[in-house]
Amino acid sequence: LAKVGFIAEKTPATELQVGDVIESANGKSIQTWFDFEKIMSVSVNKSIALKVRRDTQELNLSVTPKHFEIPNDIDYVSKLQLEADARLLGSGTLEIAPWWNPVIGEMKEDGPAKKAGLMVGDTILAINDSPVMQWIDITRSIRSIKIPPIRFVKKERWWSDLNSPATIKICRFFWPDTAIVRDTAQAINILYQRGSETGIAVASPKISFAQRSNGTIESFPAIGISPTMKPDPKGFTYSMVSAGFMTVKMGKLILVTLHKLVTGKLSVKLLAGPVGIAQGSGSSFREGGAKQLVYYLALISVNLGVVNLIPFPLLDGGWLFIFLLYEFFAKKPVPQKIQERMMQAGLAALLALIVYITYNDLGRAFGYQTVDEAVQSESK
Fold first, then answer.
1. Which residue has the higher pLDDT, 37 or 360?
2. Nearest partner of 270 among 373, 360, 368, judged by Cα
3. For residue 127, which phi and psi values (nearest 5 degrees)?
4. How would DSSP label each residue in 286-335?
5. Exposure string (b/e) for 291-321, b if CB count within 10 Å is 16 or more?
6. In sequence order, what are the beta bridge partners of 57?
7. Is 363 among the domain residues?
8. Burial class of 2 by CB neighbour count within 10 A (0 to 12, 13 to 18, 19+)
9. Is residue 328 domain-resident?
10. Are residues 129 and 56 in the same domain?
């Protein structure tokens, strides 16, 4: 069923309405939203004849997709996927989105919804007395909740200042007597249906963070649920080509990041080692399940491949771009003693880097974040 759930303000499909069911496009039967997307994506500036069911009416409409401009304020993985789709499938868009029923399909094990007693398969009927017709209504209701600001509280004022439930992170390393505090977000009442019974769950949204493709960090309230979404049947060939495209783009991103680290445009405090990778893996799985974990591990794999090619002693890139190139042009190998000195210097530098990165990892693990960093993250 290809049912319209969202229409942007600047859509070229001005005749469509939320709730319309697209039954055919250019004479072809439409069974799923992906069937319609395939026609829409290859029809930039071309008219599409639609047969639409609106309530009890059968309407014949005409729409003309425009070229899709990928936004910069989305997370990097989503941006890569959109770029791959635009290259492989086409870039036509009507700036509309499908209707998702408000049925919980996935749930985070440690999320507020789980703690409130909600279960996979529950249908959300209302949030804070606001009726829910489709999934986007849930998103809008939760995102409208005001995010409490962070506060910095001295130890001697902990009990007097923390007069409401709060999330506390103590800076054990830099400021042992200071706590970074974020008050708990406003609780919401969720009316749900489970089978033939209805109930009310009370959940306190958790503050989540997402890094956008332009480098900014967005914070927003969430309760740890997502709808049931069937994957689009794009086929093996598309999947392989898309994976190759995304691998190349990830590699370019890593090179750009390395350049910014060398030139000082990015702080080396952002580097992560084994501890950070383990934390990131766990966080990826908790936030997005197995799919997000695979994306994360793929990024780590590409990262290791690119870093290993850096022309630095002890790395494969050192042998390829230093020793072998020297041997190619000089027609003789690098003297053994010089090789040993370069390898020793490279080992010392790598060990120092490992120690520093591990220090950063432990700092993030135990909350030794500076006040300036916390304020900067919050302002972003």
1. 37
2. 360
3. -130, 120
4. HHHHHHHHHHHHHHHHHHHHHHHTSS-TTSHHHIIIIIHHHHHHHSSPPP
5. ebbebbeebeebbeebeebeebbebebbeee
6. 54
7. yes
8. buried
9. yes
10. no
111 and 94: one domain?
Answer: no
Please indicate, yes or no, whether residues 47 and 129 belong to a single structural domain of this protein. Answer: no
Domain extent, residue 8, equals: 2-98
Does pTM top 0.70 for this prediction?
no
Which range among 114-118, 263-267, 346-350 shows the weakest confidence by mean pLDDT? 263-267
Tell me how far apart the alpha carbons of residues 232 and 84 are, in angstroms, rounded to a whole number.
14
The tally of domains found in the chain comes to 3
Pick the closest to residue 71 from 79, 63, 81 (CA basis).
79
Alpha carbon 70 to chain centroid, angstroms: 15
The CA-atom distances, in angstroms, between 339 and each of 308, 313, 325, 342, 349 are 18, 9, 14, 5, 15
Do residues 248 and 290 share a domain?
A: yes
Same domain, 189 and 83: no
What are the counts of helices (DSSP H) followed by strands (DSSP E) for the chain?
A: 11, 19
Q: Is 154 among the domain residues?
A: no
Query: Are the CB atoms for 134 and 5 separated by under 8 Å?
Result: yes
Is the Cβ–Cβ distance between 279 and 367 less than 8 Å? no
Which one-letter DSSP state was computed for residue 33?
H
What confidence tier does 113 reach under pLDDT thresholds 50, 70, 90? Answer: very high
* Residue-level pLDDT at 160: 46
Q: What is the pLDDT of residues 163-180, one digit of tens each?
A: 444 444 444 444 445 555
The two three-digit tokens of residue 41, written as one number: 């994506």
Reported as type and span, the H/E element at residue 76 is helix 76-88
In degrees to the nearest 10, what's the CA dihedral of 172, 186, 189, 221?
-70
Where does the pLDDT of residue 30 fall: very low under 50, low under 70, confident under 90, or very high at 90 and above?
very high
Please, which residues bridge with residue 150 across strands?
Answer: 182
Strands (E), 134-187: 150-154, 166-170, 178-183
CATH of the domain at 222: 2.30.42.10
H or E element: which one contains 50? strand 48-54
Domain boundary among 98, 129, 160: 98
User: What does the pLDDT read at residue 134?
Assistant: 92
